[in-house]
Design goal:
Residues 4-59 form the DUF3955 domain. The chain crosses the membrane at residues 7-28, 40-61. The chain has 72 residues and is mainly alpha-helical. It has a domain at 15-23 and 40-63. Helices cover 69% and strands 6% of the residues. The chain is built from two helices and two strands; from the N terminus they run H-E-E-H. It has helices at residues 3-25, 41-67, and strands spanning 28-29, 35-36. The chain has a two-stranded antiparallel ribbon. Helix 1 (3-25) packs antiparallel against helix 2 (41-67). It is rod-shaped, with a radius of gyration of 19 Å. The two termini are 30 Å apart.
Length: 72
């Protein structure tokens, strides 16, 4: 795999990892009635996932533009 695609897929993998970690840690209600959960992993996971998707789209479009560029 080319390096440019590896750097674009890394945020996607990290985002999925955040969702997996969130589900493994789980949540519980403390004795004082507060909910304890690692909620910060959800928005970070979404940000990383969508940043990876956008970067893959940009790299794909740039690659297609270079491939079909008219040659002089």
């Amino acid at each position: 795999m080319k390096k440019k695609y590896m750097f674009a897929t890394l945020p996607i993998l990290l985002g999925v990892l955040c969702f997996i970690i969130f589900s493994f840690i789980g949540s519980y209600v403390a004795e004082d009635g507060t909910l304890v959960e690692p909620f910060f992993l959800v928005p970070i996971g979404y940000l990383l996932f969508f940043a990876g998707i956008i970067s893959l789209l940009i790299i794909g479009v740039q690659t297609m533009m270079k491939k079909f560029r008219p040659r002089n």
